[in-house]
Amino acid sequence: MISANFPVDEDGRTYHVGLKRGEVCNRIITVGDPERARKLAQLLDQTQPPFTLLSHRGFYTVTGTYQGVPVSIVAIGMGMAMMDFFVREIRAVVDGPMAILRLGSCGSTDVAGVGDIIVPTEAVAVTRHYDYFQNPTASEDKPYHISLPVTADATLVSGVMARLSALVGTEHVHSGLNATCDSFYSSQGRDDANFIDANEKVLSHLKTVYPQLVSLEMETFMLYHLARTAQPLVLPQGQQSSIHAAAAMMVFADRTKNQFISKAQVDNIEAKVGGAILDALIQYDLGTAESLHPSKGS
Ligand code: R1P
Ligand code: URA
Known about the structure:
single chain, alpha/beta, Rossmann fold, five-stranded mixed β-barrel, about 25% helix, globular, binds 1-O-phosphono-alpha-D-ribofuranose, binds uracil
């Protein structure tokens, strides 16, 4: 490893995601579940074998083409920290502007039912306030902190919404505010008798602060936040955003009706939405500065 600040090995591979320049594209679909990545990879052009890499930390990348356009699919696992590793380490080895679409799963808090899809226009972070738990009765703080919202790339959102609506019908595609939580359990308001979580009011409080809340999951805020805080690219034609980000999330848990998706439903919905997401990704205009030279084979 060459530097303790941003470690890369002698080949230029980043420490956790494990990719070097040329192995990952400007257009990326990121998912949590590696199985979902493998299903999406089956939709890529079959003209030549894609590049694949499983990193020692479990990041799984497939790079190939979709309708002739270079795309990468990267499975990152779960949580904001994994999204942070992924976005920073990918940004370090890709030249030019990037479009990143997350295809995830979520819980719904409003009208969206199991199997519907949510495309968040904005996201907040909900994090456990650890100090509160040192002495709950004396604390003047709330047990959970809710951040201000950050927005998605509006054009990417429109492209995704249009393609998904055409596929499954507008009544099954929803948009609004997503809450990215630092736990599947406590900060998503789930009851876990084994722990003191003080979370009985977290969802009602969240809905009061943000009535447009539609979903709960664990990564999208970090993607949107890093896209908004990435240093702009300085190009001959002026400054350009470095990262354009949006997400589409399949509803696995309906928190209002207390229903959870079955394995058969997951297989059905993942197979269905994958093509629409890839279509939206390749049709997004990244401007003139897109550059990519994906490696062949693995
Ligand atoms: C929890 O089950 C996981 O599912 C959701 C959450 O954000 C969390 O990562 O997303 P993925 O299906 O993309 O992993
Ligand atoms: N992912 C989450 O983070 N929460 C849910 O309820 C479902 C999927």
